[in-house]
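#lab-general

N.A. 3:47 PM
ok so I finally got the sequence cleaned up, no stray characters, all 304 residues accounted for. can someone with queue access submit it? mine expired

B.Y. 3:52 PM
send it over

N.A. 3:53 PM
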Amino acid sequence: MTTLKDWPVIAGQIERRPVMSSHVEFAEQYGNLRAGRPVVLTGVPIPPTCAERLTDEGLRRSLGDTMLPVMVAAGGQFATGKGPWDPSKFRILEMTFSEYLDRLHGRRPDPILAQGERCYIYQSPPERLGPLLEDLPMSPLIPPDACVVNRYAWIGEGTITVAHYDTEENFLLQLRGKKRVLLFSPADHDYLYFNRNGTVHDRHTRVDFTKVDEQQFPDFRKARAYETVLEPGDMLYIPVCWLHHIETVTFGVSVNTWWMTPELLKIHQAFDTLCGEIDAGVRREVQHMCLQVMRDRIMNPINP
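B.Y. 4:20 PM
back already:
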């Protein structure tokens, strides 16, 4: 066994550049299906009122007594999606935000969490967080004709989001703290050992990045990871179908936005039309076929 930090797959750092103001410039250089490539856009402005609410005092003042669902995961490794969840690995608890912070930082005896479990405010719609993010605008780099799918907040420390890919474009904006991110191109999907097609988590890799099993996953060595550490004001563009593994390095708050260009939306709509009301298992298989077509159109590693 070896950890990913010791594994010879880190091919380089993700490009970093100051954020641009034009969605046209962004689309031409990064955000399109044929030439989509990740980039960290630095210097994204965070409204001062929002920044004030992200301090420890501001968080407790804004959210202290708010009841929130909190995800608990064994080993601090969190899968994505809507479930169903394996009850031996994941569970949802309701607690106030102040209780969550105290539990996160070990300020109270905790009979709820077992040894090795971590808790995470995970994929929370911003409207559930009261005033915390109410004046954080949508990124102007999302094209005006795009379809915004979802926007979620993530608040935690010491967690890992298990490596997976999404079927939408993704902006991940870091508001507080640091996150380490590893990205893998769709060109390397054959080396990433996804769960079986048609299962709930078939866009997740079976490789445990904290202790890579070289015997079970020998071709993982062929995959190339691109790395970055996000700090406040950094926004990472994760193109559709790029696998991403995310670690919260320090206590942090981030917001991600999933969106689709008209071209990508047409692919999703074609899938919905094709599948109709067919059996759920068959639907997942057909979806996988559609995603394969999508990946075939965007298999462009950063440095071919």
